[in-house]
């Protein structure tokens, strides 16, 4: 996927969090390990803490500092 802001290739990764520690993003298909989380590696500064465990496949542009992911709102 190309970034809609700058047109460069975006990096695919996994956005994850468990409500207790930092929300992190890691390139590829793996969620961040507990140790990365402890060190704050891949921390997503925009994330606000909640109480639920989650992970989302998200594309990241380091140039524009934007993320894109597909979603739907259930009704
Ligand atoms: Zn961009």
What does this structure look like?
This protein is 8% helix and 29% strand. The longest helix has 6 residues, at 34-39. It has one helix spanning 34-39; strands at residues 11-17, 24-27, 54-61, 66-68. It starts with 10 loop residues before the first strand and ends in a 7-residue tail after the last strand. Strands 2-1-3-4 form a 4-stranded antiparallel β-sheet, with no helix packed on it. It contains 1 helix and 4 strands, in the order ββαββ. The mean pLDDT is 86. With 75 residues, the protein is mainly beta.
Radius of gyration: 13 Å
Separation of the first and last Cα atoms: 28 Å
Q: How many strand segments? A: 4
- The dominant shape is globular
Q: State the helicity in percent bands.
A: under 10%
Instruction: Report the mean per-residue pLDDT as an integer.
Output: 86
The main sheet comes to:
4 strands, antiparallel
Which regions contain 5 or more consecutive residues with pLDDT less than 50?
A: none
Structural class: mainly beta
Strand fraction equals 25-35%
Give a topology summary.
Elements: E1 11-17, E2 24-27, H1 34-39, E3 54-61, E4 66-68
Antiparallel strand pairs: 1-2, 1-3, 3-4
The protein binds zinc ion (ZN).
């Amino acid at each position: 996927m190309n970034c809609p802001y700058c047109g460069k290739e975006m990096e695919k990764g996994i956005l994850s969090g468990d409500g207790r520690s930092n929300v992190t993003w890691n390139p590829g298909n793996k969620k961040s390990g507990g140790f990365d989380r402890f060190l704050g590696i891949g921390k997503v500064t925009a994330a606000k803490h909640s109480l639920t465990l989650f992970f989302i496949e998200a594309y990241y542009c380091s140039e524009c500092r934007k993320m894109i992911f597909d979603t739907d709102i259930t009704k």
